[in-house]
Amino acid sequence: MDTTKEAPAVAAVVRERVRTAKPGTFLRSKDFAGSARAVDSELSRLSTRGELRRVRRGLYWRGTPTRFGMSAPSPLEVALAVAGPGAGPAGVAAAHQLGLTTQVPATVEIAAPGKTPEPLPGVRFTARSFARRERKLNPTEVAVLEVLREPHSAEASWEEIGQTVQRLVKTRKVRPELIAAEVADEHHVQARRHWDELAVSL
């Protein structure tokens, strides 16, 4: 197909998808059908017009329009989008996600399945098992795993950590069967021991 003739149709599809995207949505150029040049050109144009916010090459954010421009995603949101499925907060960021600390880390630590992405400002990626992506763990489940590894990252007692995990399991925000499988696969001694302690009361 002639890419010159294809470009207007691709641009129209891109505009419509951006227009209908909910605020707080990441859009990737690779997810659009059509020539990469036409897709990238339209996304770049929409970013220049303020309808999107460019995060990095091939990744855009549809935020909430304000009089000061498009709202920006948080460093955590950007890091999770870049790290992809199976990623989640680690360290103090994991404890904060679970409400186990009031500390807001200056540098957000992200547990990324498999190879770590290219660095981002204010973010530190840590490599973890690729099985987390294969199991489609959500960020909350990853946060639980990371707190099991490093419970000292939380400003909470072990009893409070247990109560938090129980509540997350009860509301199905965390799937205990996946946590158990991941802990067993990763062979992290402390995480396994802590999970075994919690599993008795789940």
Radius of gyration: 20 Å
Strand adjacency order, main sheet: 1-3-2
Order of helices and strands: HEHEEEEHEHEEHHHHH
Query: How many structural domains can be distinguished in the coordinates?
Result: 2
Distance between the termini: 58 Å
Question: Which spans have pLDDT < 50 for at least 5 consecutive residues?
Answer: none
Helix content: 40-55%
Report the structural category.
alpha+beta
Helix tally equals 9
Total strand segments: 8
Outline? elongated
Mean pLDDT: 92
> What can be said about the biggest beta sheet?
3 strands, antiparallel
Residue share in β-strands: 5-15%
Structural commentary:
The strands form 3 sheets. This protein has a 3-stranded antiparallel beta sheet, with helices on both faces. The longest helix is centred in the first third of the chain and has 18 residues, at about 5-20. It has helices at about 5-20, 35-50, 75-85, 90-95, 130-135, 140-150, 160-170, 175-185, 190-200, and strands spanning about 25-30, 55, 60, 65, 70, 90, 110-115, 125-130. The chain has 2 domains: about 5-70, Winged helix-like DNA-binding domain superfamily/Winged helix DNA-binding domain (Arc Repressor Mutant, subunit A); about 75-200, no CATH class. It has 9 helices and 8 strands.
